[in-house]
Design brief:
It is a single chain. With about 600 residues, this protein is mainly beta. It has four domains: about 160 residues, Immunoglobulin-like, CATH 2.60.40; about 110 residues, Immunoglobulins (Immunoglobulin-like), CATH 2.60.40; about 120 residues, Immunoglobulin-like, CATH 2.60.40.10; about 70 residues, no CATH class. About 5% of the residues lie in helices and about 45% in strands. The radius of gyration is 43 Å and the shape is elongated. About 25% of the residues are buried. The N terminus and C terminus are likely disordered.
Length: about 600
């Protein structure tokens, strides 16, 4: 691979793409001829992608700067010509419309071209094309303009595999990538295509690599709407010798579990030729950057090595701190550390003791499959090393749901006034298996209406209390608890909470509300009140209404649904002395209605 990069660099030094030349110079003297050789090259010749009709097309160009960072190159008035295919000039679009190559040598930028062919061009993907632009090159206040053209047949290649027209493929990879600054962030990118089109939501993984070549914040990245997976790469604090190279390996598994790969070539050329050995700055180095948890609450050690940037020797003073993922702000369980600030020992090491999340399966179900932690020395917070913790409960996880219920000797949740009744709680899984007593850690029972009734604390002389709490050996399944009612009838809510460990050792909590109906005493008083009158227009009658209220001896409305018999004296009757049975006006009297009315009384 080193031989390859040297060959590419030699080829770049002699390759000339400035086809038309000319143009006027706004300043004198002009730019030296030696610098005019291939100031810009078309690095990767992508194929033109068209729709099924061969009308609409897209093309991504990758341009590379071939002069040092002191030069600013601007390309304007962009144009594209396709051999044998006529483009509708009004449809041609470039994104961006102009491009500035203002980075270091070998830095690259993309241009997305889109348009419509005036006539159908189904084989455009196999056609040669020429990209043209007005080029302005500036250095030290001096500028020179010329016409830039580049042909697809002259491109260097290397920016990713050619896109497959069927299935998945990698494309537009940032390779080679020149690293010129220590402790600096760079984007390592690759585009995932499906049938030559960008695809969103696919996970690309980066294989772990030696920390002497840098680090990334996350080894698993999901593609965006443009199909790009972007890895945040950090150059090492201590740069390798200039001219050093290494390869990063990217991988993606398709729907059939087939793996496609892409190599990213890193070349190290530190600006200034290296580091200042007289400067004493702590930098962190992490050898084990990936940890996989297969159990809940699993404990691991995370070792952070600290070196002196100037001398590359262990840095033995100060503390290392850990930065947590952002999702802890939304309550996500990412695990915990015994200490979040750890002093560096005599060997330049800081050991963090980590305990993983309690319920990994719930995190995975919610889409949280990993957590990334950043470590840094307090004297150099800009330099950070990362450790990614990945969750994998593919083996040993026992799925189960749990149900909390109650019962009593008579099977009813009812009580009378001034009575005591015992209820029992049961905690079982969804298969009906009771949870072991050893897995129950605490039980809390609370009366939510203490005017109606309270709980009886049998361990404290039978005192009436609003809350009962059972811990340790007293927190068991099939736990019984007495309830005492007073002189008020109505609803008595009892809240029951059980804390326990499930079959996977995960801490769980279940809460239910048991509503006890407290009945009133027997009826002892009754009152009748006038409730108004209404007219029945059909029968030309008036209907008088009365309200009947029945209470017990404690003035509770009776809620036991008794029957109430209602009768009235409603008519004149013939005197008993009348022999004919005919009513007359000499001796009338009232009589009592014999057809009594019965009905439920709702307390």
């Amino acid at each position: 691979m080193k031989k390859y990069i040297y060959t590419v660099l030699i080829f770049l030094s002699v390759f000339i793409l400035s086809a038309c030349g000319g143009g006027d110079s706004s300043n004198s003297p002009s730019i030296p001829d030696a610098e005019k050789s291939a100031p810009v090259v078309l690095f990767d010749a992508k194929k033109i992608i068209t729709d099924l009709k061969g009308e609409n097309f897209t093309l991504r160009l990758n341009l590379m700067k071939n002069v040092n960072g002191n030069y600013l190159i601007q390309l304007d008035n962009l144009d594209l010509y396709v051999d044998g295919c006529n483009i509708d000039a009004s449809s041609l679009r470039f994104d961006p419309a102009s491009i500035a190559l203002d980075g270091n040598a070998l830095s690259r930028k993309d241009i997305l071209v889109s348009g419509v062919f005036a006539t159908t061009c189904l084989d455009a993907k196999d056609k040669k094309y020429v990209f043209a632009a007005d080029m302005t090159m500036t250095i030290n206040g001096k500028t020179e303009k010329s016409k830039f053209t580049a042909s697809s047949t002259d491109a260097l290649g290397g920016g990713g595999n050619s896109p497959s027209l069927s299935g998945y493929s990698f494309y537009n990879a940032t390779t080679p990538l020149e690293i010129t600054q220590a402790s600096t962030h760079y984007d390592v990118k690759v585009q995932v295509l499906l049938d030559a089109h960008p695809v969103e939501g696919k996970t690309v993984e980066l294989t772990a690599f030696p920390s002497i070549y840098g680090d990334v914040s996350n080894y698993r990245v999901t593609t965006g709407s443009d199909g790009y997976a972007v890895f945040d790469y950090s150059a090492p604090a201590i740069m390798p010798a200039n001219g050093s190279v290494t390869e990063l390996k990217l991988g993606f598994k398709d729907d059939n579990n087939n793996t496609i790969t892409q190599d990213i070539l890193l070349t190290f050329n530190a600006v200034g030729g290296g580091v200042d050995t007289n400067v004493s700055v702590p930098v962190v180095v992490i050898s084990k950057k990936n940890i996989t948890l297969t159990q809940n609450s699993e404990t691991r050690e995370m070792e952070i090595q600290v070196f002196d940037k100037g001398t590359n020797t262990p840095y033995t003073t100060g503390n290392v701190k850990v930065s947590l993922p952002d999702n802890v702000l939304t309550g996500t369980d990412v695990g915990s550390f015994t200490e979040y600030i750890v002093p560096v020992d005599a060997n330049g090491k800081a050991i963090f003791n980590y305990t993983g999340p309690q319920d990994i399966q719930s995190l995975v179900d919610a889409g949280e499959t990993a957590a990334s932690f950043a470590f840094y020395h307090e004297e150099n917070s800009e330099n950070r090393g990362g450790i990614t913790v990945t969750y994998d409960l593919s083996s040993g996880y026992i799925p189960a749901n749990y149900v909390l219920t109650t019962s009593s000797a008579d099977g009813k949740q009812t009580m009378g006034l001034q009575t005591m009744k015992t209820f029992t709680l049961y905690l079982k899984d969804d298969q009906g298996t009771p949870v072991d007593d050893a897995d129950i850690t605490q039980i809390d029972i609370e009366s939510k209406n203490t005017l109606v009734g309270k709980l009886v604390d049998t361990a404290n002389g039978g005192a009436n209390v609003s809350i009962l709490t059972f811990n340790g050996a007293n927190a068991v399944n099939s736990k019984s608890f007495p309830v005492q009612t007073y002189t008020l009838s109505g609803l008595l809510p009892i809240e029951i909470t059980v804390n326990f460990n499930d079959a996977n050792g995960v801490s769980k909590k279940l809460t239910i509300n048991m509503n006890i109906v407290v009945f009133s005493g027997p009826p002892t008083a009754m009152s009748i009140s006038y409730a108004g009158v209404e007219q029945n227009s059909t029968t030309a009658k008036y209907i008088e209404k009365f309200a009947v209220t029945v209470t017990d001896s404690y003035n509770n409305p009776v809620n036991t649904k008794p029957y109430v018999a209602v009768g009235a004296m409603v008519e004149y009757a013939v005197d008993g002395s009348s022999g004919t049975g005919t009513r007359n006006t000499t001796s009338p009297r009232l009589w009592h209605g014999l057809n009594d009315t019965h009905g439920n009384l709702e307390g």
